[in-house]
Amino acid sequence: MSLWRSRGKGQERERRAALAGQASADAAVAMEAAQVATLEQVATVEGPEPPADKAPPPAPPDLTAAAFFDVDNTMMMGASIFHFARGLAARKYFTSSDLAGFAWQQVKFRIGGRENHDGIQTNREAALSFVAGRSVEEMVDVGEEIYDELMADKIWAGTRALAQMHLDAGQRVWLVTATPVELAAIIARRLGLTGALGTVAENVDGVYTGRLVGDLLHGRAKAHAVRALAAREGLNLRRCTAYSDSQNDVPMLSVVGTAVAVNPDSGLREVARARGWEVRDFRTGRKAAKIGVPSVLGAGAVAGAVAAGLAYRRRAA
């Protein structure tokens, strides 16, 4: 009986991961289309900009190749959702003690090495209860402010240069992260990237319902999202490149032709060595030690950060 139950749980996890990947790809395509439409509207109103003197011609678009970048400790020092939670706490969405408690629980969880899916699911449900009833527009506006305050100066220059290399080659570049897709899209837009794949929270008429579409975009869900986006965009995955710091992202790294470990954890470093993947490490001594704690917040961070906010609201009620 336990074997069948275990198989059933595994199939359900895979189903939710696939649903999360499909939803994330749908959201990424929709956001990219909306951004293009906005730019075209602005160009129509303001007219085309005069060409810059001696500006190099744009690289011809390479429509079948692309690059996919993880965010936390790959593109950004530490965990983006933790920086976002700090900003929310500063705005009284929840308290600093809630934030500290969340951080400590996540550190213990990650150091212990136990990814209990039932525990992640509980945190996920609590997290979505916190955003239920809030508007997407409100969270996007707050996310823009928090990016400027707490994230803009935490982008790894080396990783940013790698992304620019792909852009200069005429390739599109997407972020792939468990962070909410709206926040991921802000980061991508500020960096001049194509777009982002992230965790999708259901909304109706621009208001969050308190439910996720599928699951967190973590682990195998990221691989599903990359495959789904490739199918929609006509990408040849063998010509694509993926970058990450975490062993959890091996499924995503394995679906593309070129995988690069950036600031890798010990598990990914071993996998990269065994598979002959390139390793890029932009950390040095003291700086690497300073970002160690935020970087372990990974998988459950999306849910855990706002779950702390839910606890605060319940006490205040």
UniProtKB/TrEMBL annotation:
Protein name, as recorded: HAD-superfamily subfamily IB hydrolase, TIGR01490
Family annotation (Pfam families): HAD (PF12710)
Assigned protein family: Belongs to the HAD-like hydrolase superfamily. SerB family.
PANTHER family registered for this protein in UniProt: PHOSPHOSERINE PHOSPHATASE (PTHR43344), PHOSPHOSERINE PHOSPHATASE SERB1 (PTHR43344:SF15)
Gene3D superfamilies: HAD superfamily/HAD-like, SG protein - dephosphorylation function
Keyword terms, alphabetized: Hydrolase, Magnesium, Metal-binding
Domain of life: Bacteria
